[in-house]
Structures are given as C-alpha cells and as structure tokens.
C-alpha cells in the first residue's frame, strides 16, 4: 500500500484557468523547441512527407512534487556513481566474470563482448572513454516502517543513449515561465516559486551534457589526418525525439565551438572509413570532398538488439570500436550498464561494491539507493528469488526485468509466476527479480498529442552524469578519471496505471521537480 | 524590363546537399520557434482541436542577395522616418486636411477620425504615444538610366501591427547557423560569411521592439489604481502567426521584466474596464480577482476593416482610445499610416515634407526613397494620374492601390484601365497610382507547408523603428520625441509571379539579407 506524504496537489482548475495554462504551455513549448515529431497515429507520413510538423513533447501541466532531501541526495551522489561505473568499465576481469554468466542466454551481450575481444586482440586505438550517464530513481516510502520517510531507490543506471537531457532544461524553464506569468492558482504559486532550496528546480542538463562532449572532443587532441575535427551523433532513422538531440548539438556548437554531424546507424559503413592507423574519418554525403576526423562518437542508437537486424550492423559497430575516436560509451561501458551488473551490485550482502569504491561512507550512500535485486540463477540468492517469484503471494511485491538494456517487457507482480511457468527454466537467468518500489501517491495532468489526461502518476527522477577517463592498460594500470560532474536532472512522469517508462514511446511525459520539505 | 545586377545565385544543389540543407533548416526552425500554426489546408481543426501542431514559418532556403548600400541607407534613415511619422501624428490640422478628403469614400478612415474627435472632445487621458513602425522597401533599378544603380524605393510605411519582428531575428540566426554548419556549397559560403560590412546580417528586431514596449511601460509611470502594471497585446482570434508575437512577449518579460497579456479584439469590452479617471484595467478571465493596470496597448489587431464587423468592435476601439493607457499606435498615428499620407508625401513636387522635417539633407534622403505616387482625385496631379491609369500603354508601369491599410486588392499594370472602367468614378479617389518598382531578377527557394518551390523571387526589406513621443497639447505645444531608434530589419520574399506580400497569408516567406557590393 502506497503511503501518502504530499500536500493536496495539484488544484482543480476552472475552465478559464485550464485554457490559460494550456495555451501558454503549448505556445511556450513550440516557441522554445520543447517538441517532438508527432507519431504516425497523430500525423501520417502521407500528410507530411518532409516531416515539417512538430508538437509539444508530452509534458505535465504541473511540475510534480518531489521530496527535497531525496532530490538533493540523488544529485549529490551522482559523482560517486560516475566513479563507480567508470571503475567497472575499467575492470575487465570483473566485467568478464559477470558477462560470462550471460553469454549463453543473452545473444546481444555475447555479441558486444565478442567485439571487445576482437578489438582487444588487435589492441585498442583509443585509451580515453566518455560516459554520459543517467541514474534513474523513484521515491519509495516503506509502508511497514514505524515512521515512514521518503527515500530514493534506483530503477536503473543508463550508460548509453541516456535521453531527454536536451529537453529537460526546457521543461523546467517552461514550468518556471508558467509560474512567472501566474498560470497557476495563487494558492499553489507560493509552493512553486523558487526559494534557495525549494520550488521548481532548473535543470542544466543541456549545456552540461554538451560540455561533456566538448571535453572529450578537446581531450582527443589534434588531428592525425590534418582534417577538421568533429563529433558524431550516431542516431536512429526516423527519430521522433530528434529535437532532444538537436538541443545538445546546438549547445555543442555555440557553447563549446564544436562541430557535429548526425550519422544514421545504417550509414556507418557508407559514410565513415578508417585510415591505416584507425583514425575515423566521416565523409559527409552532402559534401564528400570535405572529410572530417571524428574525435567522439555519441551513441543515440545501437543500444538495443533492434538496431542490429542485419549482419552489417555488427560489422558497423566493430568498425567504430576499432577506431581511434572516443566512444560515448565504450563497449565495456555499454556492458557495464547491463542489468546484470546492477543486480549483482544490489544483491543483498554483495561484496562487489567495495571492489570499486574505497570510501565506506560513499559505499553506504550508494547502497542506500538500491532496491533489493536478485538473480534468477542457481546461486543461494537466486534460489531464494525463484521461491519468491513462483509464489503469486510473494511475487506481488516484485517486478521481473530482462537483463538487457532498452526498457520494455517487464513482468509485474502476480503475472510473474505464470510468465515463468511458460518460460523454459534455462532462460530464467536472463531475468532479474527486483523488489517493487512503492512511490507515494501523486496526481498530475499530462498533455500528449493534443490530449490532456489527468490522474494518478508515478515520477522517475533521472540524474545525468558526465565522466571522462583514461581506460588504463591492465596489469596494474587501472586508468584514471579525468573529468567527473553531475549534469542536471530529468523528471519523467507516467500514469500509474501504465507500468512502463519512456516518453518518446508514448508512455510518459517530461516533468520538473517542485521540491517540497516532506 | 528588370535589370540584372547580382552574381549567379543560388547554386543548384545535389540531392544530398538539398536533403542536408532542408533537414537542418526544418529542425533548427522548430527547435527555435521559427514557426507558425499550420493553415487549415495542411492540418484541419478537426485533426488538432487544441492547436498543438506547428510547422516552420515559410522561409527561404537561401538568404537573398541584397545590395549593401541600399540596406545601409534603409537602416540609416529609419530614425528620420520615425521623426517624420511622429511629427505627422502630432500635427492634427494637417492630418485633418488629409483625412477629410477620404471621409466620404473611406468609411474606415472616417470611423477612426470620428473616434479621435469623440475622445478629443472629452480630452485625451494620455499624452504619450508609442510607434513601432516598419518601413518597407524594394530594390529598384531604373533600366532607362545610362548607368543603372540599385536604389531603395518605399513600398509602404506601416504604423500599426507591423509583423514578423519576432521571427526576423530567428530567420537571420537560422541562415547564419546553416552557414556555420556548411549547409551551403563551398563556392557560395564565402559570399555568405559575415564580414564587417558584407554577408548575412543578423536582425535584432525581437529584443529591440520588446525594448520599445518596455520603454513605454516605464514611461507610463506608477499605478494610479495601486495595481500591478501590464502591457496588453491586442490580438486576433485564431492567429496563425502567434509565435511571432510570443517571441516579443517573452523578450518583454525576460529582457524588460514586463508582464503582458494577450487580449483578443472581441474580448476588449468583456475583459477590460475604465475607472472614473479612465485608467484602463485588465481583468484576466483566468484570475478575475487579480486585475492589472494597463500601461500600453500593442495593437496586433484592429488595423483593418475586417476586425470591425460588429458595432461592439467600434465601441471597443473607442473604449481603448479613451483610456489612459499608451496606445501603440494612437489613433492619429494609425491614420498617419494611411496610404493617402504616403501618397501626398510622394506626389511629385509636394510641399509637405518640409512641414515635418527641418533638415534639407534629411528631406532629400527621404525623398530619394519615394516612388512617384499620384492621387486619383481632381487635382492637377490627380488628372495626370487619371490620364496615365486609363491608357493601357502607360498604365503598364503602374500599380493601383487602395488607400486603406492591410494589403491585398492591388490592381496591376494592364488590368488597371478595365478595373477603373468598372468602378464608379466617385470611388476613384479611394485609390492611389504608384509607379511600379523594378527589382533586379533574383532566384531563391521557399519552404512552405512542407513543400519546396524554387523560382524567381522579389524581396521586400522592412526596417523597424521605435519612437516614443509626447503628443503635445496643440496651440504651439507640438510635443516632443522622447525615444527614437532603428529596431532591426525583416526581409520578406515572395515568388515574382505572385504580386502580393504577407507571409502569414500564404504568399511569401521570411528571409535574411546577404549583403553584396553591387
């Protein structure tokens, strides 16, 4: 049973109030590119072949309430999380032990690992790696505690293609604008107005993430091929969330002075080539005579199996990994983000955290953010998990998640025993069992594709982190972290009847955190 | 015969070049609110009842070439034009003599004049007036000259609702972005890159016009009714060009710290009231308990007869004019912008200019921008005009324009004699006859509603001006100009087969000037 902690919120609006709020929200969003390309169900490709129509990104009408100390803690520990995942990506032996358990059951992880082995054999051409992470949390209130207090629990840690960093700065600016023009009723505007520590928090994710790309670009050094340098945004075709990426691109150009190009995943082998020393060259299709040398590849594609439907796709990934460009993320960092890693770190009484973080205080803070996660293998913890998951009574407090990246296909609560019953037991280790987080009840309204829906919602706080490191050469050289900063936040809010995330997929909305002292 | 003066431009693009240019143009435009609401022919109200879809404003793919000295001259004389039209608006006797000629033939002018007389009788409650002008020019090359040189000729002078000041700063920034990312072929990018005096000129119209509203707001002084102060944007319902206005609103809030509200023209009498001392109060429908005192009314509606289809509409205009709010424009300034005024100033050997401008040098520069304009009345100049206009041979060098504001319904060249033949002669003085301006041939491509059309185009340079003055009390007190500045520019470009302007009406595109030394 979810425990209520927030004041009554948001208020009911009169028709005139709603109309004023909505008109200003829509126009501000479009005027500032807080937008997505409309889904085919709203605008068909037939109607708009050039793709010139846009619509506000799904957004909440109100900034969602969020406990101040939870927010502060999530941002405060981001640098430690950056350090942790950088250390994991630099610990090949440890990663190998984790990945090996998945090789037979997760073809995607297996393919990624094979690419690592292939490049390792040849020798890596680049010793720097860039992480642009996002650690996602929900507020959890333990209803069985004597004095229930809100705390953050990690939902997942993203090491590749963390999205919405371009839009989240816009959505907080949008909600702050609505406060500035008194679009909210007086009885709540005091709550929303920013004081030093409370009120709507502005996210700086856009410029801060662009600064991460800029730092990697500069760390690459001068051109080996005497060509102009560039960053590559590796993207999916027909990306509806393109403006999120564009805002990073524009900040990278204007604030960092760094050129970038968008490269669709299926054009890698056509539009890039490697020199004999594996310098990566980008040959712009619109201007083949002005090749650029690629310093940094920012993956906004290639993170899920659905991007690898042809043999060429894997050849393309290998081609990039062999190159001297800095990868964001490197293939080991990509693997570090697998749910299996999250699971072994969060398995009760796991010894792993102390391998990567020397400070006991830091380890304790990180541990506090873990919801218990169990493997579904045949270890002691795994057998306990199987017992919990196959009994519909105990399963009701859990969610079953595939180890792979990319969201989707989670199995919830009472549906778990039936699902496992229909799944061959040897495939069970491809899943983890996670204790459900119990967020306090909250109401909001969401504008999506021209429709407003109001109801119970669940918010997910994502904290961005930028980390640039030297990978090290093994045998005592563990590399070193060169840059490490917290890079703003995102609040994503979804209806509490849906149990999926991901705004662009149509299930949620971008939101701002209005911090309250609860 | 139009005389060619420009280098070959723009270049032909390969398919890949066009695709790169267009994708970047579309995404940049949407990400920065260089947008309009799509017309019903593109997106029906049925499909999008809340109005959440937007599309790039009609824009040119290339910045249009423009002679540098013409551009510099147009901007340099804007302050003199501000001075001129402020002086006209402050010279009631002279305006009266002009308007009286129109009273019987132009019902709209007649109604405006009656409002002035009504308010004058009661006594004006506000002695300050704000002008946000736009002087529109075309480049003219006299093909009969021995050494043809480009010069600017004024098309019209707008004293009310001058549009696109919000978007023009965006379109120049967009074209400059396209240069920065090498979206144009190398052979022309040198031409487009900004040097000190050549290349694409950034317009500052957005912030500069907002600064005009901010100056009026501050000049109004403190609240008489002890209420928060605000500016009113008086707008049309279902405004497709809303983002143009929104950008001014946002700059006014952020750069000037001034609140504003959008008031639809048909809500004036519902949402505002006058106190006993004629202070204008705005009662926001979404928050009736928080009335604001209106310092300044910025007319983006009410400029054409089509806004006055009910008796209430005229009562509403009177209501505003009676108020103590600063009007942008005042009713006399609105009248000063009638085509009749432009015509009498530009009638060959007119004595009027010296009444308003003391400096002979300034008068000469202003005079140079006039294309000869004739009345169609029974004066000597009018009789000469009738001779020119009724003969299809001589009419071929002229355009016939209605005296009223708002564009549209111009009659061109050979069509003039037939039109006059079908029009009762007593209505002829409602029109002016203007020598056609002969712009040098130019090619461009325009993106509009998801379609690209390439072909011959005509560009129209609009220069914005801000002028704040004290109206004076007559009898020797001629008032005084308090603020006067040039406020950026707009280039509007239309296909040369169409002979109408006005992008939002679907006939043109917003553009940037790429200055060339021709």
Automatic annotation (TrEMBL), chains A, B:
<comment type="similarity">
    <text>Belongs to the eukaryotic GSH synthase family.</text>
</comment>
<feature type="binding site">
    <location>
        <position position="460"/>
    </location>
    <ligand>
        <name>ATP</name>
    </ligand>
</feature>
<dbReference type="InterPro" id="IPR004887">
    <property type="entry name" value="GSH_synth_subst-bd"/>
</dbReference>
<feature type="binding site">
    <location>
        <position position="245"/>
    </location>
    <ligand>
        <name>substrate</name>
    </ligand>
</feature>
<comment type="pathway">
    <text>Sulfur metabolism; glutathione biosynthesis; glutathione from L-cysteine and L-glutamate: step 2/2.</text>
</comment>
<feature type="binding site">
    <location>
        <position position="412"/>
    </location>
    <ligand>
        <name>ATP</name>
    </ligand>
</feature>
<keyword id="KW-0067">ATP-binding</keyword>
<dbReference type="InterPro" id="IPR037013">
    <property type="entry name" value="GSH-S_sub-bd_sf"/>
</dbReference>
<feature type="binding site">
    <location>
        <begin position="239"/>
        <end position="241"/>
    </location>
    <ligand>
        <name>substrate</name>
    </ligand>
</feature>
<feature type="binding site">
    <location>
        <begin position="160"/>
        <end position="163"/>
    </location>
    <ligand>
        <name>substrate</name>
    </ligand>
</feature>
<feature type="binding site">
    <location>
        <position position="494"/>
    </location>
    <ligand>
        <name>ATP</name>
    </ligand>
</feature>
<comment type="subunit">
    <text>Homodimer.</text>
</comment>
<feature type="binding site">
    <location>
        <position position="405"/>
    </location>
    <ligand>
        <name>Mg(2+)</name>
    </ligand>
</feature>
<keyword id="KW-0479">Metal-binding</keyword>
<dbReference type="InterPro" id="IPR005615">
    <property type="entry name" value="Glutathione_synthase"/>
</dbReference>
<dbReference type="GO" id="GO:0005524">
    <property type="term" value="F:ATP binding"/>
</dbReference>
<feature type="binding site">
    <location>
        <position position="492"/>
    </location>
    <ligand>
        <name>substrate</name>
    </ligand>
</feature>
<dbReference type="InterPro" id="IPR016185">
    <property type="entry name" value="PreATP-grasp_dom_sf"/>
</dbReference>
<dbReference type="Pfam" id="PF03199">
    <property type="entry name" value="GSH_synthase"/>
</dbReference>
<keyword id="KW-0547">Nucleotide-binding</keyword>
<feature type="binding site">
    <location>
        <begin position="401"/>
        <end position="410"/>
    </location>
    <ligand>
        <name>ATP</name>
    </ligand>
</feature>
<dbReference type="InterPro" id="IPR014709">
    <property type="entry name" value="Glutathione_synthase_C_euk"/>
</dbReference>
<feature type="binding site">
    <location>
        <position position="339"/>
    </location>
    <ligand>
        <name>ATP</name>
    </ligand>
</feature>
<keyword id="KW-0436">Ligase</keyword>
<feature type="binding site">
    <location>
        <begin position="503"/>
        <end position="504"/>
    </location>
    <ligand>
        <name>substrate</name>
    </ligand>
</feature>
<keyword id="KW-0317">Glutathione biosynthesis</keyword>
<dbReference type="GO" id="GO:0004363">
    <property type="term" value="F:glutathione synthase activity"/>
</dbReference>
<feature type="domain" description="Glutathione synthase substrate-binding">
    <location>
        <begin position="230"/>
        <end position="336"/>
    </location>
</feature>
<feature type="binding site">
    <location>
        <position position="156"/>
    </location>
    <ligand>
        <name>ATP</name>
    </ligand>
</feature>
<dbReference type="Pfam" id="PF03917">
    <property type="entry name" value="GSH_synth_ATP"/>
</dbReference>
<dbReference type="GO" id="GO:0043295">
    <property type="term" value="F:glutathione binding"/>
</dbReference>
<keyword id="KW-0460">Magnesium</keyword>
<protein>
    <recommendedName>
        <fullName>Glutathione synthetase</fullName>
        <ecNumber>6.3.2.3</ecNumber>
    </recommendedName>
</protein>
<feature type="binding site">
    <location>
        <position position="158"/>
    </location>
    <ligand>
        <name>Mg(2+)</name>
    </ligand>
</feature>
<dbReference type="InterPro" id="IPR014042">
    <property type="entry name" value="Glutathione_synthase_a-hlx"/>
</dbReference>
<feature type="binding site">
    <location>
        <position position="500"/>
    </location>
    <ligand>
        <name>ATP</name>
    </ligand>
</feature>
<feature type="binding site">
    <location>
        <begin position="434"/>
        <end position="437"/>
    </location>
    <ligand>
        <name>ATP</name>
    </ligand>
</feature>
<feature type="binding site">
    <location>
        <position position="156"/>
    </location>
    <ligand>
        <name>Mg(2+)</name>
    </ligand>
</feature>
<feature type="binding site">
    <location>
        <position position="134"/>
    </location>
    <ligand>
        <name>substrate</name>
    </ligand>
</feature>
<dbReference type="GO" id="GO:0000287">
    <property type="term" value="F:magnesium ion binding"/>
</dbReference>
<dbReference type="GO" id="GO:0005829">
    <property type="term" value="C:cytosol"/>
</dbReference>
<dbReference type="InterPro" id="IPR014049">
    <property type="entry name" value="Glutathione_synthase_N_euk"/>
</dbReference>
């Amino acid at each position: 049973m979810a425990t209520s902690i927030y004041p009554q919120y948001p208020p009911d609006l009169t028709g005139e109030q709603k109309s004023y709020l909505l008109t200003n929200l829509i126009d501000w969003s479009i005027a500032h590119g807080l937008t997505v390309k409309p889904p085919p169900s709203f605008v068909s490709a037939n109607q708009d072949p050039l793709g010139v129509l846009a619509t506000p990104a799904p957004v909440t009408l109100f900034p969602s309430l969020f406990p101040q100390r939870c927010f502060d803690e999530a941002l405060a520990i981001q640098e430690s999380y950056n350090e942790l995942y950088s250390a994991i990506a630099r610990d090949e032996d440890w990663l190998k032990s984790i990945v090996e358990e998945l090789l037979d059951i997760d073809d995607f992880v297996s393919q990624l690992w094979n690419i690592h082995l292939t490049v390792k054999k040849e020798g890596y051409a680049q010793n720097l790696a860039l992480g642009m992470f996002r650690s996602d949390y929900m507020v959890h209130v333990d209803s069985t505690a004597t004095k229930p207090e809100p705390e953050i629990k990690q939902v997942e840690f993203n090491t590749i293609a963390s999205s919405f960093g371009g839009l989240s700065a816009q959505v907080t600016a949008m909600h702050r604008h609505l406060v500035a023009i008194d679009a909210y009723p007086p009885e709540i505007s005091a709550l929303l107005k920013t004081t030093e520590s409370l009120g709507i928090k502005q996210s700086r994710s856009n410029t801060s993430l662009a600064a991460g790309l800029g730092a990697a670009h500069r760390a690459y050094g001068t051109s080996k091929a005497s060509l102009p340098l560039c960053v590559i945004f590796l993207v999916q075709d027909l990306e509806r969330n393109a403006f999120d990426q564009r805002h990073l691109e524009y900040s990278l150009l204007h604030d960092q002075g760094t050129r970038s190009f968008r490269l669709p995943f299926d054009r890698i082998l056509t539009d890039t080539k490697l020199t004999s020393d594996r310098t990566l060259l980008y040959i712009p299709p619109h201007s083949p005579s002005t090749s650029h040398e690629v310093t940094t590849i920012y993956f906004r594609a290639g993170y899920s199996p659905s991007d690898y439907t042809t043999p060429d796709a894997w050849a393309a990934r290998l081609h990039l990994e062999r190159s001297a460009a800095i990868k964001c993320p490197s293939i080991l960092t990509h693997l570090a983000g697998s749910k299996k890693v999250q699971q072994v770190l969060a398995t009760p009484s796991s010894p792993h955290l102390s391998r990567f973080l020397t400070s006991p205080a830091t380890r304790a803070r990180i541990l506090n953010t873990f919801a218990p996660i169990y493997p579904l293998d045949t270890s002691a913890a795994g057998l306990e998990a199987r017992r919990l998951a196959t009994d519909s009574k105990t399963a009701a407090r859990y969610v079953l998640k595939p180890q792979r990246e990319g969201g989707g296909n989670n199995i919830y609560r009472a549906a778990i025993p039936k699902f496992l019953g229909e799944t061959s037991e040897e495939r069970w280790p491809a899943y983890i069992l996670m204790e459900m987080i119990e967020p306090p009840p909250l109401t909001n309204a969401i504008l999506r594709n021209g429709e407003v829906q109001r109801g119970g919602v669940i918010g997910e706080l994502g904290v961005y982190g930028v980390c640039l490191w030297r990978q090290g050469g093994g045998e005592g050289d563990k590399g070193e972290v060169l840059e490490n900063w917290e890079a703003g936040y995102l609040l994503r809010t979804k209806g509490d009847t849906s149990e999926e995330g991901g705004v662009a997929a149509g299930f949620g909305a971008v939101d701002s955190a209005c911090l309250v002292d609860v």
